[in-house]
Amino acid sequence: MRGFISSMVTVASVATMMTALPAWAATSDKAITVVLAVELDSLDPCDTQPAQNANVVRGNVFESLTHVSPVSGKIEPLLAESWKQTSDREWEFKLKKGVKFHDGTDFNAAAAAANIMRTQGGPNYAGIACLNSGQIPDPVKAEAVDDLTLKVTTSVVDPILPLRISYVDIGDLASQSKPAKVLNPVGTGPYKFVSRKQGDSVKLTRFDGYWGAAPQIKDVTYIVRKEATVRASMVETGEAQIALSIQAQDATDDDRTVTFKDNRIFVMRPMTFKEPFKDPRVRQALSYAVDRGTIVPAILGVTGAPYYQMLGPQVNAYIPDYDEKLAMKYDPAKAKELIAAAKADGHPVDTPFDIVTRPDILPDGGELVQAIAQNLKEVGLKVNIRSMENTAWREFLRQPFPAEQPPTLQMISHDNTSGDASFSFPKYITCKGINSAICNPEIDKLVAEAEVASGDKRAELYRKAAGILYQQAGFIGIAEQIRLIMLGEGVEYKANPLSGLEIKIADVRLKD
Amino acid sequence: MVLQSTPIVASSRITRWRASPKWQMFTSSPLAVASAAWLIFVVVLAFVVAPLVVDQANHQTIAMRFYAPFRLDKGFEFFLGADSLGRPIMLQLIVGARTSVLIAIFAVSISAAIGYAVGVVSGYFGGWIDNILLRLADIIHTVPSLLMALVVLFILQPSIFNLIIVLGITRIPVYLRTSRTQTMEVRERMFVEVSKAIGASNWRIITRDIAPLVFPTIRTLAMLEVSAVILSAASLTFLGIGLQRPDVDWGMMVSDGRAYLKSAWFVAVFPGIVIVLTALSANILSNWLRAVEDPAQSTLFFRAKKKRGAAEE
Amino acid sequence: MYTYLGRRLLSGFITLLGVVVVVFFMSRFTGSPIDLFFPEGAEPAQIEAFNKAYGLDKPLAQQFGIFLLNVAQGDFGTSIWQQRPAMEAALSEMPMTLLLAAIAMTISILVALILGSLAAVYRFRAVDRTITILSLMTSSMPHFWFALVGILIFAVQLRVLPTSGSNSWLSWILPVATVSIGPIGVLTQVVRGAMIDVLSSGYVRNARARGFSARRVVYRHALRNAALPIISVAGDIAAGMVNGAVIVSVVFAFPGIGRLIVGAILNRDYPVLEASVVVVGVSIILLNLLIDIICSIVDPRIRLN
Q1: pTM
Q2: Considering only CB atoms, which chain B residues are within 8 Å of C125?
Q3: Which of A164, C84, C194, C254 would you call most buried, defined as having the most Cβ atoms within 10 angstroms of its Cβ?
Q4: A367: nearest CB among B85, B258, B261
């Protein structure tokens, strides 16, 4: 595990300057407006997984026991003071004392345990989806030993449990009626929930009983605007102070546009169970056909860079020398050659397939996909773009893949902020993975071994699996995404690799 | 104005037509001529030019991304600039014209034909069939057309054909009501009574006596609807439903361009102007048609007659 | 009068019933909310419980029956995403839409009255031609394009208006203009036509012959008589404003029923979709009824039958 953490350190320290934070400014009565791109689904602590929810509540309303440091990539204490692995499958967490929920009740081990249990869904919480449940794939049992001691028992050996626990946000369950995921989030964070108008706005205000340092800004209003140009303009006109998901063409050259990388990669997933993609040569041809070096900078500008792997440089499965040595870079002649060879062996390489994408897959994604389609046509493949909205897109993403479904090349914007491939590989590249369109026994074996290994061993096993995956062209990287945030006049915020998931208002400063 | 197949007859018809007051009225009103010319121009572009340039129009040249308009150094096709993938906007507009014209012609024809036929029959017979049809029309009419189209196009695959069907169906009530009302009025006229008295069948009365009288109204309405359908279709593709690349229409072009409003205004503005011009031409022509039927209303097409205006200070 | 009202309400009710049926089945065909609501690999037990809670586990016909029974009791179910009664969600968005429509309608009618009367009074003159061409142009303008160009000019370039939202009265200007632009064109044409008819009719000529000034004739008599066609067209236009409201909600993030419906379609929130379409339907039906009644009051010759 040290491998990926140390690589995270270098990248993170270049990408951010968190160490140079100004001293805590005095509290003020100032208010800011943050403009989001997507309406949030819910305010439930159990649903902080989708970015649109997390952007509002995570780190502001809710806190977790552990936290991934955006600077070092290490797991740091937050509501837990310390933890230790007491046996193979048992962990003990000592919790912070004197932490209060927004409603005045005490935070304690019982509340923490209840949240961990609830995150896993299960019959007691049937009827309510918990969008974070995927972060804990194998059931764990959490129980309070005493007021501030929590015991977590895992069902399998899980070396990265503290990392998983960082995805469990702690809310005061007693104050929340369970199905009402939207009405009354009560957490321990520096901001408490004030009101929400569906489809319009969410308001937060500073929580005076916060256990940590009081933040400078008092009131926060979140609004949603779907048009990126409008979001950018709002910051320029002073209607908002922070705008998320800005497109390259609206970015300013000065320090008002801040960038960050959140390990988000734009990838293509060929459906290897169907022709024309059964032969790996045709899949490799896909990679050789796409002229990333031309189309990515032209279309994504500052928001993307050509990329060849599935996972970002901060994830432990990243293969450092892959790009120089093995990457299947633009070479249309080679692509045609591979296709011809597959054809000679009787593969129906001219079977038309659908590029399955969504309009909001990434900023300017529509253009990028059209450019990819033209590249693929140029090497003789029969391509048809199908841009569909989220529901339909997911039907193509997930198993099972019914026979009547046409062969697909699925466009996916995949992020992994955890730094650990176990949050990606089991789901995306194993035979049983819900989002997997490839089945390779070797990969499955390596992934299963990695699951229970730790540190360098774990990283090496994941890298091996990744090597096979890329050689088989089961996933084809196109671009590493770089995200933009736009700040208003006088607003200071240092973006970090976690900014895609949480924008801590406590980290925002307003100049006088 | 139905064209005959025999050339000799046709030519004599054209001569006669040229001498007709309608033609004279048409040629003497510059606006009507200009509108008709624009519409003919668009149709020619759509059906003659578009098939020739479609490959060139859809060809991306990344280096030409957002090439600014009104310059000729990269060739005439880039005179209106290039879009985000370096496709020539002018050629995209021409290919988009084909989609928009196809949709307008077929959607209007479908809704006009169905609405006209059903309206006449329903108005003529009355009774419970009439009631049911009227309620059906009400239902279509009560669900706002854009919503209806939104939902239906969510279920169906995006394609020009489905767009035509959806727009065609949502516009039926307009014709149905108009032709029904007119039929009910015509039905009571003397000559229909006479036809009935001499034993003409219902079918004959409907097709020979009533339908021809209702037709001019439907024709005028259809012309008016051309502009409405062009606008509705553009709204739908603007909202991102109904069409899929490489199919393109003007609404989709505006939609694609809106992300670049600040950096490349022309990508969204040119297709918008073309939509306005086309809808406006269709509107002016339909106004002209109405004016021919009711000269008192017209202002754009006829000069004030010798007699003094209706109101003066 | 009362039998007429009764009959109209009955036919309105039947229409509404049809709308409910259409919406119920159309929404079911757009796919299930499960894929959106649940994370990948959600437990089957959870999905089952969800389906049960929203009655989605039963056969479609049975769902429909239950739905009708509930609707008859005024219960449209609970919103899947908002966790409150769907009808409450729909009604809470309605005031903004009604306000937007009312403002837009008032402005459209006022502008149309002024322009249309001017055109009629100065028929065949330059004023008339200009107004007619302008009105044709505004009715040929796509909502969405007008909205975008409006944002580009007034918010991005000149920065005199906000880009979006509904916080200050300034942020109402572009949405109201967007919704009014089409109706202004259409109504101006109608006003002009009606005024010309009235001005050339016998009794106005009479009034003029008796020495009343043209202005007085226009204000006193002509306008009142021209009201009828204006009101009857206004009904259709008000229904069309819902389309404008959808565009306005998408481009300006303006609150209202348009935004709710678009969101409900995208999220497969069936109960909200059903409730909001019914609310819109009821409004349109009532509006048309109201217009007929007003027409009969304005012009006693029209009898309500």
Answers
A1: 0.81
A2: 304, 309
A3: C254
A4: B85
